[in-house]
Design brief:
- This is Putative small integral membrane protein.
- Keywords: Membrane, Transmembrane, Transmembrane helix.
- The structure is a single chain.
- Helices cover 88% and strands 0% of the residues.
- The chain has 51 residues and is mainly α.
- It contains 2 helices and no strands.
- It has one domain.
């Protein structure tokens, strides 16, 4: 479990890094938007598993 989580974390951080290089505008705002989206997804998935 921990190995796959680490793998997905590294893969997703690499994808996000590439996205920030390609997307127009200030990367700070894109980074904040992606961070908020990730928190919302984790929060929603956590709530779905509880029920």
């Amino acid at each position: 479990m921990a190995r796959s989580t680490l793998g997905w974390s590294l893969l997703s951080s690499g994808v996000v890094t590439l996205l920030l290089l390609v997307l127009p505008g200030d990367s700070l705002w894109w980074g904040l938007a992606l961070l908020i989206a990730g928190v919302v997804l984790l929060w929603r998935r956590g709530r779905e598993r509880r029920y």
